[in-house]
Amino acid sequence: xxxxxxxxxxxxxxxxxxxxxxxxxxxxxxxxxxxxxxxxxxxxxxxxxxxxxxxxxxxxxxxxxxxxxxxxxxxxxxxxxxxxxxxxxxxxxxxxxxxxxxxxxxxxxxxxxxxxxx
Length: 118
What we know:
It contains no helices and 11 strands. By secondary structure, it is mainly beta. The strands form 2 sheets. Strands 2, 4, 5, 6, 9, 10 and 11 form a 7-stranded mixed beta sheet that branches. It is globular, with a radius of gyration of 14 Å.
């Protein structure tokens, strides 16, 4: 599975961005799709995850501000980010966790940069 992330950019504090992650094939069998982020000098951290059934998990730091969703018909993962803060600035990566017979494989997008600054 190839993943193409997009939608990053420069936004002022309090603003919004919508990230997209387009998959090269059907995501119906993808167990979980996740957004991670990595800020300079920090470790990569989980931002939000959505399971195949639609169950979601959010980092405490983004609860109530970010919304993750997946459109299986369009093979696309989204992250709606509202009320952005400077500390949300990072490179955002999408991940697809696919469980198959014999194991599981993780696929990663190339990352999209989000900068929150006035």
